[in-house]
Amino acid sequence: MGENLVIVESPAKAKTIEKFLGKGFTVKSSFGHIRDLSKKKLGVDTSNGFAPNYEISADKKKVVAELTAEANKSSIVWLASDEDREGEAIAWHLSETLKLDSSKTRRIAFHEITKSAILAAIDSPRDIDMNLVNAQQARRILDRLVGFELSPILWKKVQPKLSAGRVQSVAVRLIVDREREIAAFKATSFYKVEGSFIPEKLKSTVKGSVAKKFSDESQAKAFLESCIDADFSIASIETKDATRTPTAPFTTSSLQQEAARKLGFSVSQTMTIAQRLYEAGLITYMRTDSVNLSSLALGAAKEFITKEYGAAYSHTRNYKTKTKGAQEAHEAIRPTYISNTTIEGNAGEKKLYSLIWKRTIASQMADAKLEKTTATISAANVSEPFIAESEKVVFDGFLKVYIESTDDELDAEELGLMPAIKVGQKMNPKVITATEKFTSRPARYTEASLVKKLEELGIGRPSTYAPTISTIMKRDYVIKGDKKGEPRNFNTFTLKAGKISEEAKTEIVGNEKGKLFAENIGIIVTDYLSENFDSILDYGFTAKVEEDFDQIACGNKVWNEVIRDFYTDFHQTVEDKLNDRTHTHVERRIGVDPVSGKALIARIGRFGPLVQKGENDDPDKQFASLAKGQLIENITLEEALKLFELPRIVGSYQGQTITASIGRFGPYVKYGSSFVSLGKTLDPHSVTEEEAIALIEEHKLKESKKHIATFGDIEVLNGRFGPYIKQGKNNYKIPKGTAAESLNEESCREIIEKATNTK
DNA sequence: CAGTGAGCGAGCTTCCGCTTGACTT
Q: Closest nucleotide to residue A86 (Cα to C1')?
């Protein structure tokens, strides 16, 4: 006895704190929550005040046993989980599960992991805040009730194994709504006029553009005509000072966005790499919604910047978190040691660390000072002036280390420098063009821009952004993919040497990479839920219940009354829907096959979305699966008919017919019983016999290389993850350090035996 | 693993948020 036990949530944190506290203190980790509602059952007694039934999670039994043993050995147990709703609940669950005596239990919290912060926390312990715990229980129970009552309705009404929830269903809705905005979008065209001018007595050119958009061809042409023989000159020059301020240091969400834009990382990639950096002690905690930096970090940044760039570049700033529902249990994401400009690690780790380092340093640097010059070029009888702009960096400030990226693909062009021009100076037009432009349709979400949107709506938490995205993809509600751009014609008029010429040009528009597309089942589920549970699909639903949770947290509302108010109506609707005996049959009649005269109908079948040729009672009706990216709600007759062209006979190879089609794993060619994937470049509708044969032979060559050795029933093969051993249907890993070529029958059998025994 | 779409029925699926490993053919 006499020992102190401190329990935190993360093992990496435990290690650091143990060093600060030294002798007499043991620091252990709970690895997050240790108890939860039953995994399979509802776990909430809805007829008895919504009493929750908690169970120790299977993977936490060991942790709980260890913590109990430690607690029994200690005279004081310090519950040091995070100081937010979830953290408070973890502390309470610990005190309940470990059966801690209140006289030997202390609740403490610190926002930064520094020795002084921890010692200060130890000096001012408090009791567990039951209001905050109850707010968490309300959150947990509401999510359980919504998830476990809505999902079974979908199993019955739409398809088994589907899921619905407060967060995921709204995330899907965002994507479905956007998909429909895109489908409904009609681009309108206008003309933009730009000109290059040569100032009199100078050699350089000045580029200017007309602010007004001309709504049609005749207006644009009329304007160009007015420019013929016009005497242009500088009407005014204005110079303005401007400043640019650095953005706040990273939160989980902004890190995910910038890592996607600058490094091309997916949301989950960013989190995995950040986790490794955190565990290596290189950065602070990566799941946070706070932009706050510790005083220690502020001091270190100031010292580093002053030493490295000079005092003029230092500007200590404290950022305030604006995000709805932010709980601020941690610091912003920053390097643990500001002076570590680079780290050891793999390429991804180095890049992500560097990004975090730059953003943190920049946030503590001075504003950039700019000088913006705007020159107006006009002429008599020309109705609109040309505006030329330039920008000069007078003092780079934070721009020395970091420039934030934007999602806007059509980012403003780089502004050049303005030559020495004066008011009244004659400007000779070199060329003036009127280009037809189009309004741009809404952009599909990327993983990162979806996270940004969810954060703005206050939906989801830093720890759930990445898992939410993988859930909605796993359910086939949405798919991450690319879309090829399509050609679009546009007109240009060019005024040069006093003559106007017209030219029709083509551009490729709508090319998209790594975007989230709505899938058929996502659309159907969203429509069903919006129709029957509109309040939950409402973008403001989370914000509304969060207000209630806040009221519970400050003691103004009672948690199970809040739940009851919600549940009574909700559950009634659930009951009504379960009993209404309808099944959602979403189908769309696309049109009629001009050859057979049969109807084409798109719907969901047992194996996914399909097109059916012929009515349901037609004994000769045919089926074809929809390709990835084709939607029931907007597939065209032409596209649908094309689906029935497959499988298509391409030719023959070694006396066997080659056919081409699209299967579960994409387009393929087949000869005999062998399949070869067509990859992304070849189309099964158009692949030629020569292409197919070339592919087949290439594939055969690869297959022959796949085989390393055979020992009786054992094979050594080259696989996706390198060489492995195969016996019958089972695969076995080759131990590290063993070369696949060096294996013989005996060593293979040893490996197999070892693997079988350890299972 | 490259097609499929009868009908019945037992048994299963599912939420959000807090945390790491274990494991991959």
A: B18
